[in-house]
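Section handout 9: paired folding examples.
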Amino acid sequence: MSTFDRLYIVRRDGERLDRIAKSELGSERDGAVESILSLNPGLAALGWLLPLGTRIKLPARPSSGPKRPTIKRIWGDA
């Protein structure tokens, strides 16, 4: 099992795992929700709306996408 980076505690009614992934990891896609679920056995059994006080282990935020190449220009680099 992977190690977790930080702990998130549900503090508002109506919190959903996909929204937590979006706000904390930058996206709810590309396996973000699945990686949270793998760190937190039993979390899926709580349902879509997470109860107040639920503690969720979060993985490290993924590194940003590939860097844009630097293009040499006669008036300077971009």
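Moving on to protein 2 of 2.
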Amino acid sequence: MATRQSKTALRGSDGRLMWLGPTRVFYAGLLGATSHRSLGGHGIYVSPTGGPLRMRVAGGAWQSGESLVVPARVSHQVATEHPLVLNLLLESESVDPARLPSFLRHCGPVEAPAFAQRVRDGHVQLLALASRAGPAGFPDFDELFFGAALPPPLLDARIREVIDRINADPAAPSPADECAAAVGLSFSRFLHLFKQQTGVTFRAFRAWKRARSLLYHVDQAASLTDIALDTGYPDSTHFSHSIRQVYGLRPSDILAGSRRLAVHR
């Protein structure tokens, strides 16, 4: 169950906060009435109160627990009675699934009460730090939530170079043939090696990074068309369709639900 400190913090403010980094996201905010979502990173949902969250995978039966784990690219739906949900997102190219803590190697509800409380306490700590010093005072992400750095995967240096290029500018076109040439690989060899190393096609990886970059714009006073162009989509129609496929929400709903969200980069 949540500690008295964390309950007090939630009563004292609405507790909404997002901490964004290139390979990690912590989100404490509204979940919304989502349809199925399919994120490109390893997702963890934690109840802010200790009460149950509900989840179903790929249209299956609903399950419940205070902590839910969803591997990357698994279609799922989450529901909660509480206004807020705590959500951690780990980019798939930044963690080795085989060396994650055992409870994170599952899909669905997990029994990890100590971890769930650590996430709730971490949320309280971030709220306090944000009010005093902002993100400059934030601790190391993995240390805060997991107690130690999560082991990264061993990737081919050429594939890592392309991943770093896309992460640096997700809105850039970054066509596969140019990426292949930049690292000295043939087009076909690059596509094969990329999927072999990351477990996902280059096209799907790039599409996820573009959709993820929306998170950097949720606190900006810009039109949907402007955000679509800034995140690399050709028009608002493609933007809306892609975002709904990934997050299970329309872009307009994501922005509306983020109006009171404090975003720390």
